[in-house]
Amino acid sequence: MSDLGDFGDFDADAGTDDGSAADAAGSSPSSSGSEGTTAATTDEVTDDFDATTVEPSGEDAGIGTICVSQGLRVAEDGDETTLRAYVTRGNRSSVRIGSYLLAPYPDGETLFCRITGLEYAQQYHADDATEIHARRAMRTDEIDEADYKFVAELEPIAVLYDDSAERSSASGRTQSDDDGELKRRMTDRVPKPQTVIRQADDTEEIKTGLKIPDDGVFLGHLSVGGEKVRTAASPPTIDYRLKDDYNAGDPLVFRHSLIAGGTGSGKTHGAKNILRQYLAAERTYPMADGREVSPAVVQFDPQDEYAQMHDDNPDLDDEFARRLEREGIAYGGHDDTTAFIPKVGSASYAAGHHRAEQVEFTIPFSMVHDNPWLVAGSGLNDNQYGALTTVLLPRFRKQYGNGGTYEEFTTFLDDPALREELDESGRVHEATFDAVRRRVLGFGHVFDQDARPITDLVHDFVRPGGLTVVPTYHITDSRATEAIVLAVSSLLIDQKLSNDPDYDRIKETPLVLGMDEAHNFLTDADSVQAGKVITKFTEAAKQGRKERLGLFLITQDPQDIHDAVFKQINTTVVLNLGDEDAIKSVNIPSNLESKVPYMEKGQMVVYSPDNSEPVELIGLPHCLTRHGRD
To answer: How far is Cα 278 from Cα 294, in angstroms, rounded to an integer?
Structure first.
């Protein structure tokens, strides 16, 4: 192929022999005449003409207009909705997928919508997939968009309206007589063709359009594509909060939350910041007797990170602190933080990374009478579990009393006469007896250790406005860890749901029960123990609203949490997840699901149907308390 590099220097005379073309031109009739005529012709050719502008006068008021060339339709079925906008050249670089736009109606109402697609389309029919087009573009510094249309596909979210218009119409007043509240309703009308659209830059309009509450528990700032949404207000960012007032329905803390994120996604950082808001001094909830009580937070901590919430974060400077105060965000170490250390065998706990008070406790074997599955370490089948609960434990309790220890229980099972008696009477087959005995062994380092029983520490363990952390990092035996976490959480849940509780302190205190690595305890498994645990937590999730009990679950494997518990979760916070199964399991809308694997640390998606539309957020860059080890 010939080199096209010189196609811009084209010479009309090129290719003729001996200048014959020029001679022929010079002798043609059109070239004859006086010298003056030739000069006049030359002057005519070189005359400059004034260019006529095609730009309208005035200034642009938005970023484009609603167009109808490919249809304009709003329907109940979102798939049948066709809503597109032409974006002018000067605004094309500033729009992003996910950006929020406003399209006004002539009567003062406004359509709030979101960009779901961006497309370049040809203005005129032409084939630009050619060598000449490509080479010209490669040698040009700028991109000429004059021959292309830039079209945005829009998803209508809501219609915004001022309720003063409704009230004025009903009362006969004019709209100016009464400034109303901005409200939203489902999209029920189509915008006019050529309606000018603009980017949403008003905090009230955006919060109303997305149904974000003005007050509540702070989670982060609204973002699109990893960049914070900016407004003309001060501060320019838009805070996202969870409903926390009975005037707006049940506080969402008691309708349960899940934080899901992979390693390094900022999961613990974000969880600490949220829990710190529940521990704010002004946060209280009304109880049945009319008292306003601050919530108690109990956090199970397998990595020993949450006791640091007692201490201030040294990286928080004065300027950032002032910003937090302006936005009403609680920060700083929480003084009423206590680490309750489970005593397990000879395991020792080191706490050089925090200054919280430490209290040791043990699990008394007496708790097994109400929760027999605590000693079903390897899982019992239904027949074996029945033998344990209906024969062996009642007989042991009758013989040793309520204070019988684990050591006494194992001695009780070592009695060959008992085994023979139960077998001969047909109550427990000898093979079943042996199976039960094997499975309840191995908990000698868990029960009845040299520390105060947790049942004696309830008043200190559950404190209004206090944070109790139960670290298990120092325990190397996974069976022991499971037994401790499930024993303590069951104590709290049973007392919360009971109509005749043994511990009024638990019943009468709003409680946030946090569990990190929740997939280790709430997973689906083929054992009686797993089934009992799931049943207990499912009941807690269902009744949590009326009992002021909120589950706060944290996991990197949300797909492993049992569906019965997962279905009760109202607020799901999703940070970066790389596993496809994990992403699918959190059940967030597909447009946000596709962003999850690419989110940076601190970016999150919040799906809370009773609080707002699904949104993307950016968390705070600093932890509000101490975080990380030196």
So the answer is: 9
Pairing of strands 110-122, 100-104: antiparallel
pLDDT digits (tens, 9 = 90+) for 393-429: 999 999 999 999 999 999 999 999 999 999 999 999 9
Q: Which of helix, strand or coil describes residue 73?
A: strand
The pLDDT tens digits of the residues spanning 206-215 come to: 999 999 999 9
Please, are residues 553 and 299 in contact by the beta-carbon 8 Å criterion? Answer: no
Neighbours of 479 (CB within 10 A): 14
Q: Which of 330, 296, 326, 300 is nearest to 313 (CA)?
A: 330
Which of 509, 497, 463 lies closest to 293 in space, CA to CA?
509
Q: What is the 3 state secondary structure string of 399-438?
A: HHCCCCCHHHHHHHHCCHHHHHHHHHCCCCCHHHHHHHHH
Q: Give per-residue pLDDT as tens, 305-363.
A: 999 999 999 999 999 999 999 999 999 999 999 999 999 999 999 888 899 999 999 99
| Alpha carbons 11 and 467: distance in angstroms, whole number | 86
Total residue count of the chain as it appears in this document = 630
Residue type, 501: P
Fold of 239-364+448-618: Rossmann fold (3.40.50)
Cβ-count burial of 332 within 10 angstroms (0-12 exposed, 13-18 middle, 19+ buried)? middle
Return d(Cα 560, Cα 329) in angstroms, integer.
33
In which element (H, E) is residue 39 found? Answer: helix 35-46
Q: Do the beta carbons of residue 418 and residue 398 sit within 8 Å?
A: no
CB 220 within 8 A of CB 194: no
Handedness of CA 316, 318, 323, 326 (dihedral sign): positive
Show Cβ contacts of residue 253 under 8 Å, excluding neighbours closer than 6 positions. Answer: 217, 242, 244, 278, 295, 512, 550, 552
Output the average pLDDT for the chain: 87
Query: What is the pTM for the complete model shown?
Result: 0.85
The Cα–Cα gap between 307 and 340 comes to: 10
Kindly tell me the burial class for residue 97, based on how many C-beta atoms sit within 10 Å of its own C-beta (0-12, 13-18, 19 or more): middle
Pick the closest to residue 465 from 361, 338, 328, 329 (CA basis).
338
Angle formed by the axes of helices 406-413 and 430-440, nearest 10°:
150
* Domain boundary assignment for the chain: 64-164+180-210, 239-364+448-618, 368-440
Token representation of residue 160: 């915004």
